[in-house]
Automatic annotation (TrEMBL):
PROSITE patterns: FAD_FR. Belongs to the ferric reductase (FRE) family. SUPFAM superfamilies: Ferredoxin reductase-like, C-terminal NADP-linked domain, Riboflavin synthase domain-like. It comes from Favolaschia claudopus. Its EC number is 1.16.1.9. It is an enzyme of class 1 (oxidoreductase). One of its GO terms (molecular function) is ferric-chelate reductase (NADPH) activity. This is ferric-chelate reductase (NADPH). It is found in: Cell membrane. One of its GO terms (cellular component) is plasma membrane. It catalyses: 2 a Fe(II)-siderophore + NADP(+) + H(+) = 2 a Fe(III)-siderophore + NADPH. GO terms for biological process: copper ion import; intracellular iron ion homeostasis; iron ion transport. The keyword Electron transport applies.
């Protein structure tokens, strides 16, 4: 909208001086781009179906979960024509909380396109597991249409840090849902950006701070997917380090991690370190809470912390020590990916400069690829 005002005003003033031919080509290009975007939004969000059905809605349905007053998880059922790569972003609009009908905001997609197949487990001679496979298939089919089903092929997940404006209005709307429906009309536009590929590296290091986990989580899941399907068999080790302010934020990714770790191949070494940077709150109410009163989300949170490859640590991560240790043990190429504050990104850059030089690579050291995804927290 603002672009149209600027271009229209520029053309008006330039044309009054006989220079309008410098401006109108920009108007044509801008209009063509907006038209293509509108057509894509129309197709991606199921607009074609609404032309032939009176029961179809031109909107998707979004579920907003309040992880904490500072953290939200938004789940949208994936449109049939929407495909994306790990680490890409999409523009999200929820008319009920948008200040203007055309208000959209970019958010990184925290899920991956497609389910993560479980690694094939060797069967004992003479063991008959056909009945178990049938039961598993039936349970997957029964829950395939559910919005909360952990299958990644059925949903788009966004993990949002609450700021003023759009995300703050989302928080207020989620805290006061409609008594008839707790989901919201939404539409998406995307995907956008060219994220790095983590396939083809022997070691993958992922550093995330706060909502930066929405970028490193799909890369982590893609590594597991590639290892399970033998499309990325070269990868031997993946390390994911997430610095988060409060422990309850772990709930935002616990379901995804549990599902991915359940069937990971034994050839892939996984190390997940979650650093809680804020002081732990030990209230009397928490101490007196009975085991039976723990919610399902809290139970999942504790389950993921019980996984042998997951460690819960306090304080900020020692990036230099982690990188130095991983580089010393690696023999092949290393992919380092960062998404967080400027301080976290600078710490990673500084650590890499001290442990990897051109001379080290010439003498047989591992080659390192660095990708930094910057955002404001």
């Amino acid at each position: 909208f603002l672009n149209s005002i600027i271009l229209g005003g520029a053309y008006y003033h330039a044309n009054s001086n006989g220079l309008g031919y410098y401006i109108w080509p920009s108007l044509v290009v801008w209009g063509f781009d907006r038209s293509l975007r509108f057509i894509r939004i129309f197709f991606v969000n199921g607009g074609v179906l609404t032309l032939f059905s009176t029961k179809s809605s031109p909107f998707l349905r979004a579920k907003i979960e309040v992880i904490s007053p500072q953290f939200l998880r938004v789940t949208v059922r994936r449109p049939d024509y929407f495909r994306w790569s790990p680490g890409q972003l999409a523009y999200l609009s929820i008319p009920r909380v948008s200040a203007m009908p055309w208000e959209t905001h970019p958010f990184t997609i925290a899920s991956i396109d497609g389910d993560i197949p479980r690694a094939a487990a060797p069967e004992s001679p003479g063991e008959d597991s056909s009945s178990e496979k049938v039961d598993l298939a039936e349970s997957e089919v029964a829950s395939a249409g559910s919005l909360s089903h952990p299958g990644y092929s059925k949903k788009l997940v966004f993990l949002l840090r609450v700021h003023d404006g759009f995300t703050r209005r989302m928080l207020h709307a989620a805290c006061s849902p409609s008594p008839l429906d707790d989901t919201f009309n939404a539409y998406i536009d995307g995907p956008y950006c060219a994220p790095p590929t983590v396939r083809g590296f022997e070691t993958v290091l992922l550093f995330g701070g706060g909502s930066g986990v929405s970028f490193i989580l799909p890369l982590f899941l893609d590594v597991i997917k590639g290892a399970n399907t033998a499309t990325n068999s070269i990868c031997r080790r993946v390390v994911m380090i997430w610095a988060v302010r409060h422990q309850e934020h772990i709930t935002a990714i616990s379901e995804d991690l549990l599902d991915a770790l359940a069937g990971v191949t034994a050839s892939l070494q996984i190390d997940i370190r979650i650093h809680v940077t804020a002081a732990t709150r030990n209230s009397e109410s928490d101490a007196e809470k009975s085991e039976g009163s723990i919610s399902s989300s809290e139970t999942k949170k504790h389950k993921i912390l019980d996984a042998p490859c997951v460690r819960l640590l306090s304080g900020r991560p020692d990036v230099a020590t982690v990188i130095k240790s991983e580089v010393a043990e690696a023999s092949g190429s290393i992919s380092v990916n960062v998404c967080g504050t400027a301080g976290l990104a600078e710490n990673v850059r500084t650590a890499l400069r001290t442990v990897s030089t051109a001379s080290d690579i010439l003498h047989g050291g591992p080659s390192i690829s660095l990708h930094v995804e910057a955002f404001g927290m």
